[in-house]
């Protein structure tokens, strides 16, 4: 005998969802990010790496050999496979001048899991956290779902305003537990934290018992020859570095890392046991093989050149086509540039004009916890073809001009 579901109605989902679940305002952003250009839209919205940078030949070469390793298809240690952790600890020593101890490094399923584990282990409802304004929208959602109180510190051409952070830390109220920062080629602005401010930030963190959560998703994709020290290498006692291999290997493998004090890593490993238990063994073995072959560093050099050229095309097009009064950042690495339009531009009219023109972007409000930023927007040049970028900027500039109320 077959039965049918109760036809009386539906569950009262509005009452059943937890209080930290995001409201419907995120639907607009989700819709924009889904625009991949298949309908003729030029999508400056999604911050995805370009498939041309993926090491497909190296993966094909390694795949059959790696499958012979029993660890490739089996559960693995929650902290990550020993071989990958050993190789990457050495890589950090070579490139950042500091090797994490065995109990100071763990492998995660991408950078977002790493950030989520940090929030899960450290942030209780009502705790204060500090973020840059603007900052990565995924971090804002993580803090929102932990019911944290999110304070902001502005960003300028030299990155996080450390003086403003100091004023916040010495102000009234319960001290914040942590500050989340993207010091290298920030998402969404593309700017980097100056070396002077890096030293000032870690000194401030030590003075105020503040944990710095350093997101280094774009650190290896700098366009110049100057490489500032990572915050973790300057102060491993007060920094949790959250990283991802999505931009330097492949996003599909979902591999990242956390390097942090052993006390914190121990808690993060225990928390991971209750999320995905362990990251993909197959992906970890492929990454280790790729890294030990020397092709990881070669791939980073190629990716830097690839995105440097694309950034130059974007910057030149913005300088040529944007209406007077529109400002934009000149990124020194990564995937993004940040536009600020005059207050005379009607944001609703601009959004409709851009949609009609067939060009997408991410509105600035997505990068602030208080929904400010209505005259700002993020553009990503990472996955748009070279020949298409100028046309997309021209369409965007036309939409901006048509939405100006002057």
From TrEMBL:
Keywords associated with the record: Aminotransferase, Pyridoxal phosphate, Transferase
A GO BP entry: alpha-amino acid metabolic process
Similarity comment text for this entry: Belongs to the class-I pyridoxal-phosphate-dependent aminotransferase family.
Source superkingdom: Bacteria
GO molecular function: pyridoxal phosphate binding; transaminase activity
Protein's name according to its UniProt entry: 2-aminoadipate transaminase
Entry cofactors: pyridoxal 5'-phosphate
Subunit structure: Homodimer.
InterPro entries the UniProt entry points to: Aminotransferase_I/II_large, Class-I_PLP-dep_aminotransf, PyrdxlP-dep_Trfase, PyrdxlP-dep_Trfase_major, PyrdxlP-dep_Trfase_small
EC number in record: 2.6.1.-
UniProt-listed Pfam families: Aminotran_1_2
Keyword Membrane: no
Domain Aminotransferase class I/classII large: 57-396
